[in-house]
Amino acid sequence: MTQGLSIHITGIVQGVGFRPFVYNLAQRYRLTGWVRNTSAGVDIEVDGEKVQLRDFVEHLKAELPPLARLDSISVTERPASGFEQFEILHSEAVEGAFQPISPDVSICPDCLREMNDPHDRRYRYPFINCTNCGPRFTIIQDIPYDRPKTTMSAFEMCQECRAEYEDPANRRFHAQPVACPKCGPKIWLEEFPTVQNGKRAVLINVGEDGLQRARRRLAEGKILAVKGLGGFHLACDATNPVVVAELRRRKLRVDKPFAVMMADLPTVRRHCHVSEAERALLQSPERPIVLLRRRSTSKIAREVAPRQRTIGVMLPYTPLHYLLLQRAKDFPEALVMTSGNLSEEPICTDNVEARTRLADLADAFLMHDRDIHVRTDDSVVRVISHQSSVPDTNKTLITDYLSLKTYPLRRSRGYAPFPIHLPWNVPPLLAAGAELKNTFCITNGNYAFLSHHIGDLENYETLQSFEQGIAHFEKLFRVKPQAIACDLHPNYLATRYALERAERENLPTFKIQHHHAHIAAVMAEHGLDGSHPVIGVSFDGTGYGTDGNIWGGEFLIADYAGFERAAHLEYFPLPGGDAATRRPSRTALGLLHALGLDWDDALPTHTDLCYEDRTAIWAQLQHRLNSPLTSSMGRLFDAAAALAGVRQQVNYEAQAAIEFEALADPEEPDCYQFASHSSLITPRPAIEQLIADVLAGVPLPKISARFHNGLAEMVKTTCLRLSDQYDIAEVALSGGVWQNMLLLRRTLALLEREGFTVYIHSQVPANDGGLSLGQAAIAGYRLNTQS
Predict the structure, then answer these.
(1) Residue 647: partners with Cβ closer than 8 Å, 6 or more residues away
(2) How does residue 404 score in pLDDT terms, banded at 50, 70 and 90?
(3) Phi-psi region of 727 (alpha: psi -120 to 50; beta: other; left: phi over 0)
(4) Which CA distances in Å does 470 have to 280, 427, 447, 682?
(5) Residue 732 pairs with which residues in a beta bridge?
(6) Among positive and negative, which fits the CA dihedral 497, 499, 502, 508?
(7) Cβ-contact 397, 473 below 8 angstroms
């Protein structure tokens, strides 16, 4: 007997080949009806025999297209409607409705094979794509996701592309960016070889000629600006130390590591150690930058990642990248691929803008004419390995099993704007995030849409990008905020934006303490509903505390409703405030002063500061002049690194701590001791032991390992004490310090040995890039409890 079903589906189900999948599935089971995209998801009406309908629904869930993800499926039985065939209807806008949107996806194997086939009409076409790959988020202007609402609307499809686009059996059915060399975007190379009458003459090579000339320029040691998926890269030969150093000079990026792109996995393996999990990430559709251990035999210039044991590596993810990096005898094995911007500015996306902003950085420009609607940086991830050697109290090495974790450091291209699912529905709201590594977050239902990486809100251009991003997300996901959450710090630009907008629109605001938001972010991504608190260990560099001091070494008893500061690192002063964050030697002297320890002239910190500087700093500390107090674990790392002689001045965030970690001897079993007095944790015994080792000439790798081991032991001991006190066996780790893999692995193993359930990040960064999720979760919870 014939009957009918009405089906409504939400999730990533548009622009991913879902409708042709439904169409072909309906044909398989001889069903009639229709499928249609709407702003709210996908609607399906089907008639057929009961058994066929049952099988249709089962396979609808089980045989999804590669990029599709179902969040919900609602099936309602109804009488048959008498459809005569199954068809795909035009999309329908639904007032106020929204849906998740697919992130940008790397080129698929089918398109890659066609691009390399001399007999295919898209042979060597830099913009080949299908429903299983290509741009999504960066070209979408509005929903439903149809070509007129993307930046591809400027390119009218040729007859052949139109036929593919309209054929439900074709892999390119309703692939919105579908194009070919006849009708789609083009590439060209712009060079400026001479100056005539005070102006630079422009030499332009189009298409394959431009591509090959670009490859020759890279092989000759030139720096190119390359327009990609979410913005421009600056590219150069990663094996050439001279050109890498020149790129650093032009970009004003002294030491901060560059990412590199390599043509294929065998090339990556020649330069880096690659685990199976790291291989899977490198080759995943998201194609993030993966931090890999460098091989001692690698020919990648040391200038790519100075004083680091790791290299950030990615594989090509666009057709243009594959063509650009095609292996050849005289072509570099790896290219630096760093964001196309001057240090601290937003990545360039527009051709005209790039010609102006990158004119002094690039020798030539590899351009294309497909507009980028949303600038999106590359994502960066690490893998936490299965095992970690951890010193026990008997000074012997043990090995504990750790479950495999993907650990995001920057969540952007390939991941944004895929939502995090909150444990409950919340009203529509905006969370503005933090000052550094900013992301914002908007909510709708139980979806938390975390933005792409915005960057450090330290200039007008980045603030503009932040504001434009918020406007785009609110339009895309049909959100009109009913409240705004922000950081407690009154001078953050994101906070000022939030408060000014809230006043202008008469919206309630939630000022969320920085470290509370860190812990809430971990809780939210693990689906914890807040019915019971966790021990939150929030370690970072800077966060505004409720007492007006700078926090960052915190043990919180936290849920979404609030927190208790149960323990924290003992305060010490930062002479000169921000000047101390740039000069760890100053931080070290502030720490010694607070701990009552002598300023020994033989310590490395004294070599960085002349007598007059030390005298002035001493006076600052004695009279408490411009010396704010901090409990920051990040600043403690800076001080320890300076005292150990690693680095006295930094030119990027956490540089001293990163280089200190890179030096550590993984086989060293000893550890420095921390002490606790009520809720205060003092590093005095650890610093005394560190200084004694430095003065005794103990090698730096042992000093670094002992410091890290001691911190891990301190976290374990403190969590055990708080567990007994509060009867809690769950620990959440968040904050930028937890990007230190040595500290994270050892702490995880110690806590798990003691029976704790430990929550760490796997969907959003532990640093401030994940903070907006925590702000949104706390504000949403409070709004729900107030209503």
Answers:
(1) 584, 641, 655, 656, 659, 660
(2) low
(3) left
(4) 32, 17, 16, 42
(5) 536, 759
(6) positive
(7) no
Question: Over 70: is that where the pLDDT of 329 sits?
Answer: yes
Q: How far apart are CA 593 and CA 781, in angstroms?
A: 43
Residue 324's alpha-carbon distances to 155, 289, 337, 634, in angstroms, are 24, 18, 12, 40
CB 267 within 8 A of CB 260: no
Query: Band of the pLDDT at 458, cuts 50, 70, 90?
Result: confident
- CB neighbour list of residue 629: distance below 8 Å, 6 or more residues apart: 549, 550, 571, 572, 573, 574
pLDDT at 504 over 80: yes
At residue 698, the 3 state secondary structure works out as: coil
Ramachandran bin of 297, using left for φ above 0, alpha for ψ from -120 to 50, beta for the remaining angles: alpha
Quick one: which of 100, 50, 49 has its CA closest to 70?
100
What is the Cα–Cα distance from 139 to 142, expressed in whole angstroms? 9
For 643-681, how does the pLDDT look when each residue is reduced to its tens digit (9 = 90+)?
Answer: 999 999 999 999 999 999 999 999 999 999 999 988 999
Q: How far is CA 361 from the centre of its chain?
A: 25
For residue 387, what are the contacts with CB-CB under 8 A and spacing of at least 6? 399, 400, 401, 402
d(CA 667, CA 399): 11
Q: Per the omega criterion (within 30 degrees of 0), is the bond before 669 cis?
A: no
Please report the pLDDT score of residue 94 as a whole number. Answer: 77
Measure CA 435 to chain center: 15
Alpha carbons 691 and 28: distance in angstroms, whole number: 74
The one-letter code for the residue type at 516 is: H
The encoded tokens of residue 271 equal: 């330069």
User: Cβ(4)–Cβ(81) under 8 Å?
Assistant: yes
Q: Give CA–CA dist 35/174, Å, rounded.
A: 13
Nearest to 237 by CA among 293, 175, 304, 287: 304
Round to whole Å and give the CA distance between 262 and 277. Answer: 18
What CA–CA distance (Å, rounded) separates 267 from 261?
A: 10
pLDDT, position 196: 62
HSE, side-chain direction, 13 A CA sphere, residue 730: 16
